[in-house]
DNA sequence: GCTAAACTTGAAATCGATTTCAATCATACT
DNA sequence: AGTATGATTGAAATCGATTTCAAGTTTAGC
């Protein structure tokens, strides 16, 4: 059913019907009510593509998805969806071919220039991330989930990664640990750098220097947690505590500790960052896992909100949110023997 | 840059330019090459919304996303993306408000009637799923990831859940187990029903009857695995083996077994279905987990392909794929003591 | 009763592409 | 040379909405 046809059935002009449905004020209440109820009854719904062409709005926010299994992705997007379901805005997932930076840049360019999306959300930036300059020059509103250090203006929402690791490391120091290892996230990502800073800072505050051999970068997975923890614990001067990048990493760390006949918490303390996944909870691990916690889903919801504000015209340089993380102490951290 | 403007710069009509870019045969090779290279140089790209309006194609496939944390979601979508990145087709994520069936039906209706998508993919159907009749009556191509039993025609791709559980249960019988418990997926979903059938069938083939008290339905999570396994193992007549719904569930099952001072494999055998997640591998668990395996990512890629075929006009009733699953025996299954 | 102001409504232009139909040009054949 | 054929190109209609501008209708004020 098209507007023309629908309007004719109502004995009104397309103009009036369009105005009635879009909530313009110059339509009488009586007409508006009639149009609304008839639209419902007859099932008329504007062709979104015609609307988009005419208004220039795409009605969608683009989210770039890397190729690797992104453990955070579902939660984040699900959080976004929660905010967007009342906003008549869709989420567009775009695969990143990205065998190199140029490919990725091209993917963004295509997305924006073909007017598929009104705004873009980007994850896990690096300090000097070329995507930011690119999106800036394309003139499309965008939000960074995470942070960057480029001089280019960008709206961002990030969690306090530095503070998180500083506090968890500090907690381990408080318990009496002196040799602490960290299994960080992907090398080069800003969040990994911030976490490393937090790690170093906590050491400095105690007059210590973080040992580069006690820090490693890798993806978040059970397997990498296991491998690196094992490597740390088999050394001559093994750490008595490990800071893990995610609960998934912590699973592997637990496994490594057990495989050496040791006990988590008693022989080796473990603390991790928890993004709060419904299918794996730190509290239920054995022993329960001490964590710094921040909800990925909540971040998704808020990022959607901020992106809507960007689209509505709010200035990017006034959108900066740094979320604190909670420190939750459980059984996996204790004084060294 | 619009078509008009771009065509003028080339000294051609919009018609010819459009045809050159869309690959129509009636354009000379020389012209086509010039148009293509100039489009690249000047950065002309058709406004996707105008194209969509004119052609009636939305250039997107809709994927419904439930509210709960969908552990499979990212992998599946990532698999889809792999196929779609060369197809100029986007993935549209639509949140399901769904406090009830009607809400959900309305969400689909909105999506389809506003012409946002050319086709829809649906997950985890129930045997009599009202969404199938609804999508049929809306006349939109759709693919079911999973299966249903309605008489309404529907294209589907599913894994052999019945066969998977039948084989894993059979394997446990072969090892000498006689009391086997199963932690199944969500009640009412077709895949859970099929798995239960597989479980019963394996029993029947041995002249046994599956004990209803040894079967439970729940979501896939570490926590539910733990809770149900514990409940099973603390009974008077405890099972000597457990069939788990997912690797995540198996994590919880392992934990429960350990918490009772028992050893996985030796005291209690465990086998699970593995959808292959990059961040948690069955092989790396301790002891390594026996599984039936099927790649969620591969399913996503294939579903995307089949959906493109549906859009291209292939009949829904000739698209039925039942994927076999691999049985991979590792250390978590052994003869009972 | 007349005019101004405030409400409502509609006609037509517009968004930026695709595609039908017609026209032109070059080539081949008798 | 003249015509039929095939290969290229372009003008204009079209997709289905929104929105500008103009016009018609009430209401209010004096």
UniProtKB/TrEMBL annotation, chains A, B:
Pfam families: LacI, Peripla_BP_3
InterPro entries assigned to the protein according to its UniProt record, in alphabetical order: HTH_LacI, LacI/GalR-like_sensor, Lambda_DNA-bd_dom_sf, Peripla_BP_I
SMART domains membership: HTH_LACI
Domain HTH lacI-type intervals: 1-55
Molecular function per GO: DNA-binding transcription factor activity; transcription cis-regulatory region binding
PROSITE patterns from the UniProt entry: HTH_LACI_2 (PS50932)
Organism: Rhizobium etli
CDD domains assigned: HTH_LacI, PBP1_AglR-like
Keywords from the named record: DNA-binding, Transcription, Transcription regulation
Name of the protein this chain belongs to: LacI family transcriptional regulator
Domain of life: Bacteria
């Amino acid at each position: 059913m098209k507007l023309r046809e629908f309007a004719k059935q109502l004995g009104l002009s397309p103009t009036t019907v369009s105005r009635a449905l879009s909530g313009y004020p110059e339509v009488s209440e009586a007409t508006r009510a009639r149009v609304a109820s008839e639209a419902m009854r007859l099932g008329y719904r504007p062709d979104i593509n015609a609307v988009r062409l005419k208004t220039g709005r795409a009605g969608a926010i683009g989210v770039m998805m890397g190729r690797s299994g992104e453990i955070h992705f579902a939660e984040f997007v699900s959080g976004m969806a929660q905010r967007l379901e009342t906003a008549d805005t869709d989420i567009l997932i775009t695969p990143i071919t990205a065998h190199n930076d140029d490919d990725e840049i091209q993917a963004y360019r295509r997305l924006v220039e073909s007017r598929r999306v009104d705004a873009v959300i980007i994850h896990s930036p690096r300090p000097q991330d070329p995507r930011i300059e690119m999106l800036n020059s394309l003139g499309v509103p965008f939000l960074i989930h995470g942070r960057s250090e480029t001089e280019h203006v960008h709206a961002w929402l990030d969690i306090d990664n530095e503070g998180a690791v500083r506090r968890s490391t500090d907690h381990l120091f408080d318990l009496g640990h002196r040799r602490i290892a960290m299994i960080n996230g992907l090398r080069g990502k800003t969040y990994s750098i911030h976490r490393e800073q937090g790690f170093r800072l906590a050491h400095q505050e105690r007059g210590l220097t973080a040992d580069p051999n006690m820090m490693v970068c890798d993806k978040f997975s059970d397997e990498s947690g296991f491998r690196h923890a094992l490597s740390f614990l088999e050394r001559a001067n093994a750490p008595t505590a490990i800071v893990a990048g995610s609960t998934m990493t912590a699973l592997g760390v637990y496994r490594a500790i057990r495989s050496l006949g040791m006990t988590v918490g008693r022989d080796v303390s473990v603390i991790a960052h928890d993004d709060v996944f419904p299918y794996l909870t730190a509290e239920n691990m054995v022993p329960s896992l001490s964590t710094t916690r921040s909800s990925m889903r909540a971040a998704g919801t808020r990022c959607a909100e901020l992106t809507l504000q960007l689209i509505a015209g709010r200035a990017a340089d006034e959108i900066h949110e740094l979320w604190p993380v909670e420190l939750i102490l459980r059984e996996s951290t204790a004084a060294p023997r």
